[in-house]
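Please check both lines for our workbook:

___
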Amino acid sequence: MIRHIVFFNARDKSDLETIYDGLSLLKSNPYATHLEIGRNSHADQLSGDVVDFVVYGEFVDDAALAAFKTHHTYQDAIDIVRPLRDLRMAADFAAA
């Protein structure tokens, strides 16, 4: 299983709802076996940084993750979120 985690930060806090709605489009993508979109509830105590959203997905394998990224819902989400975000940090790892 591949776990895919992405952190997002809004450039302007007035866009939080639009970003959330854009990320939520990913929930209809059929290639994830599990997908969550969450709002971060606190700032990092060491750096003071705030990540606004976390996307957490689970995929059967690398091929499923690749298919997820080519599905139209992925591009639809990018089209909405990319112009409004300041930070995007992603990590993928194989679960043991």
The helical segments are 16-24, 62-70, 72-81. The chain has three helices and four strands. The first helix runs from residue 16 to 24. Strands lie at 2-10, 34-39, 53-59, 85-94.
